[in-house]
Design a protein that fits this description.
Blueprint lengths: L1 H30 L8 H4 L3 E4 L6 E5 L2 E2 L9 H11 L11 H13 L9 H9 L9 H17 L2 H11 L6 E2 L1 H9 L8 H10 L12 H19 L5 H6 L18 H14 L4 H6 L3 E4 L3 H14 L8 E8 L6 E5 L14 E4 L5 H9 L8 E3 L23 E3 H6 L3 H11 L1 H10 L22 E2 L1 H12 L3 E3 L4 E5 L5 E3 L4 E3 L3 H17 L13 E6 L5 E7 L4 E8 L6 E2 L3 E2 L5 H13 L44 E2 L3 E2 L40 E2 L11
Parallel strand pairs: 1-5, 3-4
Antiparallel strand pairs: 1-2, 5-13, 6-7, 6-18, 8-11, 8-22, 9-10, 12-15, 13-14, 16-17, 17-18, 19-20, 21-23
Length: 702
């Protein structure tokens, strides 16, 4: 009787224990829902940025993953993964009792931790939020519960598809599609049985099998053979197929994607514009975007070549050169040169802003031609010129007087007093409005736009901004918003094409007349070094006081390009063997070298005819005896001020401090003297200005 009572107690205790466990399990089941969020890294797809052709990769951002539908994964690849990782996948309830028991026992006893997770469990662990990677009984139990619920609520094909897109395969590849590209250079749909089996084998030890050699290669081949045999055991392959399969040839692993040369600057500009257009960094890094930039791969190389081929090897390291090329009809920045990214944190084309010098004079000319003046309008070219708003008279270089001079000769000879007088006649507010509408940010003009010398280019601008402004003249007076993005396609295939803002700045005739005046600069004036003998060119040189920044801006109907040179210590730009630089020297030569390559094979397009109203074409061929090159003197904006602002490097553009001196141009090969532009040192942007005398000590060079 006593034994029976003990047995009864044991049975009752055991039953009670079972009921308690079932109750606890029920409570745990009820309190463990399927997480409603996924891990960001589980589904993140990196974005790819392309050159303008949409094929050549410029850069990759974020995780290497490309989501693929299960239907696009060949059956033999799916079967290989199932044979390697979970043969009972289509029959089990999301967990393997045997495997889970083995894993829990090894964890509890402290023995070597073993796997045993099903495909569903692996997915739960890597896909859903809220589960840590810690190997503990609690975490394992929670994983089991969620796996069982997922198995009940989701189809097996859904689970397998998410698993294949989530799992890491080594070589930086996440998901089966990226793995196929990384190991075999093909899409997943093109994988052979042998190749699919290798990817299934890699899942076990992705780092070891990513690029196996020696003992690792032997281990990889053994694991691959095991997968092939397993496929035979599951019936996925016949014995004959198993015997016939041979170890696949692996593609050489690609080195991690590195940004070289100008690509770093290109990526920065693309990212900045994406941000401005509402794309967050998270979307860029994990949204699987296909981003097509405006940059032309060949023209980018041509820009770099032009700079490096023209500049001598002994060019001082402190001398910086920027180049920017803009398509006038679209506003697309098709090419630029921003300097050596290993030496500079900020590029010379977008971020560096230096005083525009006489390259600003065409904005004054355009404003006048758009407000009732014409090319035959005569302005005061005498020196000095007294203006009520200026404390001191404004002179031309060497005090040379031109008398009453028409706007064509004023532009060709870059006569300071003529443009100061023209600015007073048309109104400085209209000059500022024209420059702003042509793409020069208002905050970069604000502090100088009331100065009498404003038309002489005392504001600091970037190469891209100046190229964009001149593109307005090339595009018949219409400014197209400058941009570096052509289109963005998201992971669902929705394509967002960039449509730039179009602004009518000046009339077509005003643009044609502005262009005509600048054609004379290249034909007979300071810009002859930029001539392209197979097509017309319009352009303008610019050199600031003591040649602290030098420019050449020019365009054909198809392309507008700006080139500048300056020093990051705000000293005179001097090249050993070439002497002090001016806009018409090395900058014009760089411009010509680039445009010669950029225009090769392009049809020759003519500029629109200039207006003949009140203008005699006799002026189209100037009297060379009258146009002997002269140096120009640049008067200060504020005669009492003695500071000369340094080049500014900003990201994004910032307001420049007030300029203290006005720039000017020289004739033919003569230097143009202007005050240096406001700048900031690349390493630590600053608006502090160095002091300078602002006097005219330049000497003409041959």
């Amino acid at each position: 009787m006593r034994k029976r009572r003990i047995l009864r107690l044991l049975l009752i205790s055991f039953g009670t224990g079972i009921l308690v466990l079932l109750g606890l399990f029920a409570v745990a089941w009820a309190m463990t829902p399927i997480p409603d969020t996924t891990q960001k890294q589980a589904t993140a797809q990196g974005s790819v940025i392309y050159y303008r052709d949409g094929k050549s990769v410029l850069a990759r951002q974020g995780i290497d993953r490309r989501l693929v539908e299960l239907a696009k994964v060949p059956p033999h690849v799916r079967q290989a993964v199932i044979a390697a990782e979970n043969r009972s996948f289509y029959e089990d309830a999301g967990v393997s009792i045997k495997g889970t028991g083995r894993a829990i026992w090894s964890t509890v006893t402290g023995q070597q931790l073993q796997g045993g997770s099903t495909i569903t469990q692996q997915l739960v662990r890597n896909y859903y939020s809220g589960l840590s990677q810690e190997r503990s009984v609690t975490r394992k139990f929670k994983e089991i519960l969620i796996a069982m619920k997922v198995d009940q609520s989701k189809s097996k094909d859904w689970v397998l598809e998410q698993y294949l897109n989530t799992i890491y395969f080594g070589r930086g590849a996440n998901g089966i599609q990226s793995a196929a590209r990384a190991y075999f250079g093909k899409d997943v749909g093109e994988l052979t049985v042998s190749e699919g089996a290798y990817l299934a084998a890699v899942i076990q030890q992705p780092s070891r099998f990513a690029d196996p050699k020696g003992a690792d290669l032997a281990a990889a081949e053994a694991r691959w053979r095991w997968v092939i045999n397993a496929m035979g055991q599951t019936g996925a392959l016949t014995p004959q197929q198993v015997a016939a399969e041979k170890f696949p040839a692996l593609a050489a692993p690609k080195k991690p994607f590195q940004l070289k040369g100008q690509a770093r600057y290109m990526l920065q500009q693309v990212t900045d514009e994406l941000n401005r257009r509402g794309y967050s960094d998270e979307e860029i890094n994990s949204g699987g975007l296909k981003i097509v930039s405006t940059f032309d791969k060949k023209l980018m190389a041509a820009a770099e070549r032009a700079v490096k081929d023209v500049l001598p090897d002994n060019t001082p390291k402190k001398v910086r050169t920027g180049l920017a090329a803009v398509d006038p009809k679209t506003g697309e920045v098709v090419a630029f040169y921003g300097g050596d990214p290993k030496r500079y944190d900020y590029d010379n084309a977008f971020s560096a802003k230096v005083m525009a010098g006489s390259t600003f004079k065409p904005y004054t000319l355009a404003a006048a031609l758009n407000n009732g003046f014409d090319l035959s309008t005569r302005v005061n070219g005498n020196s000095p010129l007294r203006v009520a708003s200026a404390e001191e008279p404004i002179p031309n270089d060497s005090g040379r007087s031109y008398g009453q001079i028409d706007l064509v000769r004023a532009t060709q000879n870059s006569v300071n007093t003529a443009f100061v007088d023209l600015g007073q006649k048309v109104g400085l507010d209209k000059v500022a409005e024209t420059a702003e509408a042509a793409g020069i940010p208002a905050d970069q003009l604000e502090q100088q736009k009331t100065a009498a010398s404003f038309p002489l280019g005392v504001s600091s601008i970037s190469a891209v901004q100046n190229a964009s402004g001149f593109a307005t003249f090339a595009n018949k007076g219409v400014h197209m918003e400058t941009h570096v993005l052509k289109s963005v396609t998201d992971s669902t295939g929705r394509k967002d094409v960039v449509n730039p803002i179009s602004t009518r700045v000046i009339s077509e005739q005003a643009a044609a007349d502005t262009t005509y005046a600048m054609e004379q600069v290249v034909k007979y004036g300071t810009g002859t070094a930029a001539r392209l003998y197979d097509r017309p060119v319009a352009g303008k040189t610019g050199t600031t006081d003591e040649s602290k920044s030098v420019w050449f801006n020019g365009y054909t109907p198809q392309l507008a390009v700006a080139v500048n040179m300056f020093r990051d210590d705000n000293e005179t730009v001097t090249i050993p063997g070439y002497g002090t630089q001016f806009g018409g020297s090395l900058p014009a030569q760089i411009w010509r070298a680039f445009m010669t390559e950029a225009m090769a094979g392009k049809p020759v397009e003519e500029f629109p005819e200039p207006s003949d109203y009140g203008y005699s074409y006799d002026y189209s061929v100037p009297d060379r005896g009258d146009d002997v090159p002269q140096q120009e003197y640049t008067p200060p904006v504020n005669p009492d001020a003695s500071s000369s602002p340094e080049p500014e490097f900003s990201q994004p553009p910032s307001t420049d401090p007030p300029a203290t001196q006005a720039p000017d141009d020289r004739l033919d090969d003569q230097p143009e003297q202007t005050a240096p532009p406001v700048t900031q040192a690349p390493e630590q942007p600053s608006t502090d200005a160095d002091t300078g005398t602002g006097d005219n000590r330049g000497r003409p060079t041959g």
